[in-house]
Amino acid sequence: ICLAFFPPSETFFPYLLGFIQKHRDPNMDFPDVGRWPIHVQISHYAGICNKRLERIGVGGRLSPKKPTLEDIDQSRLQIFRPSMFGGTLLETLAIQKDKFPSRRLPWILTTLTEQILALNGLGTEGIFRIPADFDEVMSVKCRFDQWEMGVCSDAHVPAALLKQWLRELYIPLIPDDNFYNDAIRVGDDPNLAVSLVQRLPELHRFVLTYLIRFLQLFARSDIVTVTKMDASNLSMVFAPNFLRCPSPDPIVIMENTRKEMAFVKTLIHSLETSSAEGVL
After folding, report:
1. How far apart are CA 262 and CA 239, in angstroms?
2. How far is the CA of 193 from the CAs of 13, 173, 208, 242, 272, in angstroms?
3. 219 partner at 20 to 30 Å CA-CA among 80, 81, 138, 267?
4. 153, 3, 150, 12: which is closest to 86 by C-alpha?
5. Spatial separation of the C-alpha atoms in residues 122 and 79, rounded to whole Å
6. How far is CA 187 from the centre of its chain?
7. CB atoms within 10 A of CB 243
8. Spatial contact of 210 and 204, defined as CB atoms under 8 Å apart
């Protein structure tokens, strides 16, 4: 649980890593452990610890955070039931493989976008901008981790969860520093934007194309009249969820914000997304 929120010091890191990796060996479990449930298998705990340490320890992408009681409870549950939030796109597909072996897109992604539309997101003023009720969002998020579609009071709830799912991806849609640097140089050049998308890893390209197609629905002039969310406003909301600035310098982050928005806005206006039509 601690490794979900707090990294060890750089000095302690190699010792902890060595201890964890030693206990990942199933031979370290007591005799006949295979007959026992997973919650008494030391190697299972060691495997979870190893994954969490890789992500928050030396060289990991995650930063320390102050957990809430809800965070701690979810961290405990996720030792045995992986969450659909906070992983990579490939891990998300792996989690759903038994239930949806033929799906090419994450179930949670398509379900959230469908919920937004079903709850009249196209007719909701301030969609994606107005915050949803926090407690309801957390409740529905827990439902999703149990493969249940939580009942949402309005479109703002699945909209908030969609943004959170994107924001918490361990590897963002624009996946590394080189792609990020290319994205912020795109400006309003559609050829550069499309070229970058075509070079993305296949799953990242597919998910991004699906999402841009979804946002293009909201960028239609007849919809914008109601929602007050044009391509500029949509890009303002989604750019921080699609791209993650690799620099910790707040000045660089601020300078890049408009460049990130310009990239997403260019995709909304220019990306050909018919390949994602009707795909699940």
Report:
1. 9
2. 40, 14, 12, 14, 11
3. 138
4. 3
5. 38
6. 25
7. 23
8. no
How far lies 241's CA from each of 22, 29, 211, 247, 264, in Å? 37, 41, 11, 16, 10
Residue 118 exposure: Cα atoms within 13 Å on the Cβ side = 12
Residue 29, Cβ neighbours under 10 Å: how many?
17
Distance CA 191, CA 13 (A): 45
Q: What is the pLDDT of residues 199-210, one digit of tens each?
A: 999 999 999 999
Express each pLDDT in 99-123 by its tens digit: 999 999 999 999 999 999 999 999 9
Q: CA 240 → CA 5, 32, 206, 245, 263, distances in Å?
A: 22, 49, 19, 9, 11
Residue type, 68: T
CA separation, residue 3 to residues 52, 80, 124, 226 (Å): 6, 15, 40, 45
Nearest to 108 by CA among 93, 98, 127, 122: 93
